[in-house]
Amino acid sequence: MSLPFINRELSWLEFNQRVLNEGLRSDLPLLERVKFLAITASNLDEFFQVRVGGLMLMRRSGRKTPDPSGMTPLQQIQAIRRRVQKMMEDQYRLLSDELLGQLDAAGIHPHRMRDIDAAQSDQISAHFHANIFPLLTPLSVEADGDPPLVPDLQLTVACKLVDSEDQSIRYALIPIPESLGRRIPITSSSGGHAFVLIEDVVATFAETLFPGEDVSASGCFRVTRNGDIAVQEEDAIDLAGEMEDVLAARKLSDTVRLELETPISRDVARVIQDVCQAGPQVVYRIKGPLGLASFMDLAFLPDFDRLRDKEWPAQPSPSITPGESMFDAISRQDILLHHPYESFEPVLRMIEEAADDPTVLSIKQVLYRTAKQSRVIDALIRAAENGKHVTVLVELKARFDEARNLHRAEELQRAGAQIVYGVKGLKTHAKICLIVRREAGRLRRYVHLGTGNYNESTARLYTDISLMTCRPEYGADASLFFNAVTGRSKLLRFQRLVPAPNAMKPKLLELIASEAERARQGGQARILAKINSLQDPEIIAALYDASNAGVDIQLNVRGICCLKPGGKKRAKNIRVVSIIDRYLEHARMFYFHQGGDPEIFISSADWMGRNLDRRVELMIPIEDKDARRQLLKILETLFKDTRQASLILPDGTSERIEPAKGKKPFRAQDYFYRQARRKAKAREHERAMTLEPHVPSE
């Protein structure tokens, strides 16, 4: 009998709906609602580029094999279109019926060109001719020629042109460079921040680009192209060169979505579809401004703090004495950090101190996604220039970060670092840094292991876990890991760390089966797991089996969940919740009761086939007693949330969890912030009360 599965793509869309639901909440600050709306649009952009793009390739190849939920590629594409259309209706109803009016009332004034006064029109005209016109490059659409290349995800204005003399008709496109920004500020008698959208400005002044012709009709559109193009590593001699070819190919790839502003004339729409080679099945007609992802910058407008959440500044870890060396702190004990409630600064300091410490001999690190202005990369460059042996595995196959990773890898290489471009056939997604230091005539290894990227920007927005340790077994495993990924040896003989793709799934299946066996024997059996996505069929089958055996299974799954929870047979003991809050839930944490001697892990990997079978990942056991208690407390707290948590239902949809009658709502992220602040203040007070004798220098 086949096992019940929820379709992966539809499950992801339900996750995006949970994000959109935050934007629909009238009790949230206005600009937070705008932010959530923009996030859903950005998410949809990538979903079409990658997931829909991949399905369309499957369909074109004639593949009809159903996925684990029983849906063929065509059925999935059709179901996605229906669900996305409903979601987009919700997005634009929220924008038009609520947010735009509330923004205007709050001092943020969106205007259409047709509604502005003469003084504002003169202001916009001057700005257009000085700052916009020189950067526009119109593209002619020739009836018998090749269609012009329309940039991916870029706003473009299509124009119907009528010659002033002979009344002949032709069509042209005006791509709008992203560097121009989306909003054009204008002065307003009511004060505040007034603006018009750039596509409205370009359409209004389009005739200035076509002397001797009149613009009789125009319309804005946006094309999404297939981003599911991968480097053919089997034939790649120069991986960096091959990756540049992939980036170029994406610009020319097939259209997977065409967004058309409405109203738009039928003939202009037809020309746009012809240019983009877009059939009716990929066309979405939009009643409002296109590209809502660019509205994200509205959420961060200066001088409107009253319309945003109050700041939750990251707190210092109580495990680290201010001013002390990170190596001294780690030598004293394992350090577990819960980001962003606890600052990411210790991780950055560890790498920066290593770059300048004369006793540090080498630094080895995996970089997957980094910040635009990365302190990590700056420190690694400085370390190489200081003569340290620096080895960096830069994952070029980190989708949509390939260009940045290529550029930064070249910088590191010029500084003298040894660069490895990932592992053939696999993405390297592990989060690990190994520092080797000479202490008292011996070599000592310091290791950072985490669930998130070495990215100080996202470390302020994503919840993640960091472990910093100098335990010899972890250091030895870290050396084995880097030897394997740089020297193409096998991921074998690890003492503590559990690597994918060879060992992590077998270990997880063994742990789940062990809990099931204990339950069958009448013992207490419990699994707690926090992951971003759950899709792997073998893991899901094992969880169903454990549930049947009586194991209490609680899963916190932010996004995709292909397991059907709550069924009377297979999943009667499985509860799945999802938390959407101000921080993106990103940490992966696993707890297995193991007869009262629990095994607790953090991991870079989700329970997805791609993570467990096709990526280099790490699962890290937590052995320090304080760290284990802290991690279990975090896990248990997440399952108590009755403010931001939703219960995943058997059909893949979700419903918000409400507090019990008479109980106040409990918000896990708020609790974590308050606890981090309380611990930091308590430690600060403790240090202030400690009397340190002043010892005279010799």
Q: How would you describe what is shown here?
A:
By secondary structure, the protein is an alpha/beta fold. The protein is built from 17 helices and 27 strands. The strands form four sheets. Strands 14, 18, 19, 20, 21, 23, 24, 25, 26 and 27 form a ten-stranded mixed beta sheet that branches. Strands 10, 11, 12, 13, 15, 16, 17 and 22 form an eight-stranded mixed beta sheet that branches. Strands 2-4-3-7-8-9 form a six-stranded mixed beta sheet, with helices on both faces. α1 runs antiparallel to α2, α2 (30-60) runs antiparallel to α3 and α10 (375-385) runs parallel beside α11 (402-415). The chain is globular. 43% of the residues are buried. Mean pLDDT is 92; it is low at 231-240 and 242-250.
Features:
Methane Monooxygenase Hydroxylase, Chain G, domain 1, 698 residues, Endonuclease, Chain A, alpha/beta, polyphosphate kinase like, single chain, 4 domains, 22% strand, ten-stranded mixed sheet, eight-stranded mixed sheet
